[in-house]
Amino acid sequence: MPTPHSAAPPGRPPLSRADRPRRMRDTLAFYGVLAALGGVFLGWSLLAFPLSFVLPPRLGRPIGRRAISAGFRFLLRLMQHADLVRLDLTALEPLREARGLVVAPNHLSLIDVMLVASHLPDAVCIMKAGLERKPALGGARMAGYIPNDAGLPVIRRAAEELRAGANLLVFPEGTRSSDGCIGPFHPGFALIARRAGVPVQPVFIESNTRYLGKGWPIWRRPDFPLHYRAWLGERVTVQGSAEAFAANLRPRYAAALGKALR
């Protein structure tokens, strides 16, 4: 696995004549994939938004979640065919049969959602309150993603989804890492797991790139190919206080990934 590196190293040597065609091909493929991403995302959202008002939740939510998972799989395959990414995600295959798990990856970049949700056909996420009312995010509304407008109702609704067999995809760090270290874990994911009586499934992700990490806009071209590897940790049950559980789980992520604690 290549060693993770920071964004845009200064003083990059000029490209050789032999490297220029590959860089041009990668650039065209990169912006082509971005266009496909925008088309798939916006097209499905504008269709799903009115459907979310028409279909009852028991029908609309499973359809919405599976559509998002399938869309992510399509985009990842497209990136692979263009040789922009190289993925080692076979260890995530057991998630396809998972039911009632709090799935908790470390958080390097926005691509983490695609990597994990592509293997979770029935996943629910917690999203910023108010976004569910925007037509451009109709897919998230149809999927029944949970707005984080209040503490206890969010925990209650997430626990209900878990008990019904859905999987909650949540990042314990709460935000993307800016330095590659493992940031503090917020106890909310542990509170939800304890209330629902379900285990936490750690997911470890490593990469050779900082693309779409904090401060990196989607349109800024990284160096290709991007490498991503993900694997599952041992499932753990929340015992004792959520705060203590989160604090004790964090060093396990650091040890598995060979990272420092921030």
Explain how this protein is built.
The structure is a single chain. 42% of the residues lie in helices and 12% in strands. It has 262 residues and is of the alpha/beta class. It has one domain (20-257): 3-Layer(aba) Sandwich (Glycerol-3-phosphate (1)-acyltransferase). The strands form 2 sheets. The protein has a 6-stranded mixed sheet, sandwiched between helices. It has a two-stranded parallel sheet with strand order 4-5. α1 runs antiparallel to α2. The radius of gyration is 19 Å and the shape is globular. Mean pLDDT is 90; it is low at 2-11.
User: So what's the CATH class?
Assistant: Alpha Beta
Alpha-beta content class: alpha/beta
Count of helical stretches: 7
H/E element string? HHEEHEEHEHEHEEH
Q: What is the count of distinct domains?
A: 1
CA gyration radius, whole angstroms: 19 Å
Annotated CATH topology: Glycerol-3-phosphate (1)-acyltransferase
Largest sheet: 6 strands, mixed
The percent of residues in helical segments reads: 40-55%
Compute the number of strand runs: 8
CATH architecture: 3-Layer(aba) Sandwich
**Cα distance, first to last residue?**
23 Å
Tell the overall outline: globular
Keywords:
six-stranded mixed β-sheet; 42% helix; 262 residues; globular; 12% strand; Glycerol-3-phosphate (1)-acyltransferase; alpha/beta; single chain; disordered N terminus
